[in-house]
Amino acid sequence: MTCTMPIIITGGAQRLGLACAKALLADGFDVLVTYRATKPSLALLEELGARCMYADFSSFEGVESFIRHIKQDYSALRGIIHNASEWDSEAISPDPRQLMEKMWQVHVFAPYRMNLAFEALLYAGFECLGKADIIHMTDYVAEKGSDKHIAYASSKAGLANLTYSFAKRFAPKVKVNSIAPSLLMFHPEDDADYREKALNKSLLHQAPGEKEGVLAVQYVLTNSYMTGRTLSLDGGRHLV
Ligand SMILES: NC(=O)C1=CN([C@@H]2O[C@H](COP(=O)(O)OP(=O)(O)OC[C@H]3O[C@@H](n4cnc5c(N)ncnc54)[C@H](OP(=O)(O)O)[C@@H]3O)[C@@H](O)[C@H]2O)C=CC1
Ligand SMILES: Nc1nc2c(c(=O)[nH]1)N=C([C@H](O)[C@@H](O)CO)CN2
């Protein structure tokens, strides 16, 4: 059993999760990142002081195994950021049952099961540090739906709803909030036409990058009077 009280970032070996891990390490947090595929970023994170733990949330057993490892190694947690996600579409996933199960497994069941399992550890973190947080990384489409990512959007809406229930259940010790981004960053393979259309979906016409997601996480973690809420990061997309 170690004496650190980490904040867990699921799926933290790339893009937003990685940027959050680096920023929170610089802010002085103990950071534990979960990864599935091995990536060069893991060595860098370990060099910076993070612990990197393999976890695959695509099965019930994978979630249970991760919970067992955390409970074995820690008696308290500063928090958990449910960032792990897959943005699968109906176009690339022809089997509706498989797609829906996959999206709800990673975006709803895994966070739900972990939140319940880590209740006592989060309370212990609160007793020691005076703060404990759960952050759900949802999506703008949880509110509006998406014609090309129907199952994905529904599962992010499920995750958004968990925010309300866990905020009630864990109050006043653990704050539970969502961050709901719209476009943060493109993928290298996105073509010019796609990029233009995506940028035009918001009032601010930006793909702001990881840094805006990081700032949102830092705000939620610093804040002491916000729970059961969603911080929207969408460039005013709801007004277009
Ligand atoms: N990027 C954007 O513009 C937007 C992002 N968001 C949300 O913000 C968050 C971060 O986005 P982004 O950085 O782009 O995410 P990415 O898709 O780039 O990364 C997600 C991470 O989750 C991990 N992951 C996926 N499935 C599983 C699983 N079953 N078990 C364990 N780990 C898993 C992946 O690991 P591996 O590669 O090893 O599978 C990967 O490291 C996500 O929740 C996303 O939905 C919302 C709106 C816009
Ligand atoms: N897990 C992921 N979720 C999302 C991603 C992603 O790359 N991984 N990307 C998006 C898009 O940026 C979209 O918001 C605009 O094209 C949404 N969710």
TrEMBL record:
GO terms for biological process: one-carbon metabolic process. One of its GO terms (molecular function) is dihydrofolate reductase activity. It catalyses: (6S)-5,6,7,8-tetrahydrofolate + NADP(+) = 7,8-dihydrofolate + NADPH + H(+); 7,8-dihydromonapterin + NADPH + H(+) = 5,6,7,8-tetrahydromonapterin + NADP(+). Keywords: NADP, One-carbon metabolism, Oxidoreductase. Coiled coil: none annotated. InterPro entries: NAD(P)-bd_dom_sf, Sc_DH/Rdtase_CS, SDR_fam. Its EC number is 1.5.1.3, 1.5.1.50. Pfam families: adh_short_C2. The keyword Acetylation does not apply. Catalyzes the reduction of dihydromonapterin to tetrahydromonapterin. Also has lower activity with dihydrofolate. Belongs to the short-chain dehydrogenases/reductases (SDR) family. FolM subfamily. This is Dihydromonapterin reductase. It comes from Marinomonas pollencensis.
